[in-house]
Amino acid sequence: MASKELSDALLLAALNALAQHDGNQSHAAQALGMDRATFRHRLRLAERRGLKAGVASADDPQAMRALIQRLTAELRAAGKVSEQTEIIKGVIGSMARQVEELDAPQWVLTPSTKTSMPGVPTLFLSDLHWGEQVFPAQINNVNEYNLEIAHARMKTLVDSAIHLLQIISPKMQYPGIVVPLGGDLISGNIHDELTATNELNSMPTVLDIYGVLVSVIAVLADMFGRVFLPCVSGNHGRDTQKIWNKDRHATSFDWLICKFLAKHFEQDKRVTFFIPDGPDAYYKVYDYAYLLTHGDQFRGGDGLIGCLGPIIRGDHKKRSRNSQVDMDYDTMIIGHWHQYIHHSRVIVNGSLKGYDEYAYNNNFGFETPCQALWLTHPKYGITYRMPVYVDSKRVVKTDWVSVPR
Length: 405
What we know:
Blueprint: H1 8-20, H2 25-32, H3 36-48, H4 61-101, H5 106-109, E1 120-123, H6 147-168, E2 177-178, H7 192-197, H8 202-224, E3 227-230, H9 253-264, E4 271-274, E5 280-285, E6 288-293, H10 308-323, E7 331-334, E8 341-342, E9 346-348, H11 357-361, E10 370-377, E11 381-389
Parallel strand pairs: 2-3, 3-4, 6-7, 7-9
Antiparallel strand pairs: 1-10, 5-6, 8-9, 10-11
């Protein structure tokens, strides 16, 4: 019978492979280049002969051939893993090169020789939710939002940001301004309630906000001389039921708006766009590295720590991922959570929309509509930091309703 022809050395090779793969028969059989049924047959024969796992003798040619066969198979498997790793690193590395080879404006990277300059300002635009309506009667009259208010708040945002920067530097000694577009530029139709209550459908909303952002960028270019706009997509602007991991950018109106804007300003040398296909934009202001992402990848939180739990965990994961491919960053900037938070490692943007029915019904804390503004200094990194409040009217508390005695 064939089983009698098998030497102890071959059976020992099977036992050794099983031990090396922590008892996983499928992996051990694969390492030896045989099917699982043959491998199990050898294990049964080894058990009958009372053999135990151990190192084969170098004097046994059959055992050494089996050992060489096993090691060759393992080396081949390891080579495939290594090859896949190199492919992955190559893809991510090409992303890094794409950033490095991007025609990044020199004023963003090279500090001015004037020591009195305060640095480069960043005005973070995200979570505009253009086209959405917030009905004041449904949230105790603490906020209202529609297209008319959105237009007014955007004007207030630009005027207030310029005013604040003039306070810091009356002569406006800035080499330019960075304006990240962080997603959720439009409300979109991702929920039935939004489809039913949005003031405009997605296409007309895209046209409206496109015109507004063209004006905003032109004003900032005239005021600061140069504008750099890294861009990512959010989750609200998608045209799919769920967010796609593949072609996320190509299923998002946010990406389309950014591409339209870049096309509009392609002849204007004062304006530079960076629109990666992935969910993250990695860029530098001087030597200070930023990672721009929308923030919808981070989920969870509770009533005690709110959004900080998922954000800090998400930041830790991204830092770990990026450090493996030499793309470390200093600060991650995100939107999505509609809460203005400014830490040294993470900047979370507010929203133009402000407090809404979702926040009210889920008992989230009240947030005044605002956008983040800060300066990056060539020596000290982030220095001045401030929210830009966009609602010209102060919230008036509603009178309590009382029943007469």
